[in-house]
Predict the structure.
Amino acid sequence: MKISLVAPNLSSVDMLLKLVEELFEYEVLPKKVEQTNSAIQQLINNPELGQAWLIEVEQDDEKIIAGHIIISYSFSLEHGGRIGLIDQFYLKPEWRQQGIGTELVPQIEYQVTKAGVRALSLEVNIGNAGARNFYEKHGFIPRRQFCMMTKTIQQEEVPLNIAS
């Protein structure tokens, strides 16, 4: 079995969107189709924002898309530069527990270091012991003293009082 990361192109964007929808269903996340479509287009058209890959498995001379990975870039003083956030790492259920993730982690690390990334972060559901164990086995360290928090910002104009 050969496993590859394949950047989506115009003909495979629909497949990526379908995989993202499957992940949202699996994680019981609210579907925001227009927002997700727009975000995928932004990511693909602006490589400085991050990276998207389809996970391709070649088995018995057949190439199958088994999942996807989305990494967004940020900047961290703590890590001395650009960092990557694994926003989504999804394998279809029938492809899990077959060593695909184990083979992909070094490929992901190689790809993001080419983009200047110095550290990778991710968010795991606290109750997902299997995923937590997988990531810890691959060198990710829980930051138990930290609590990931999120606030959705509404897009509206706010008057700025800027002194010059």
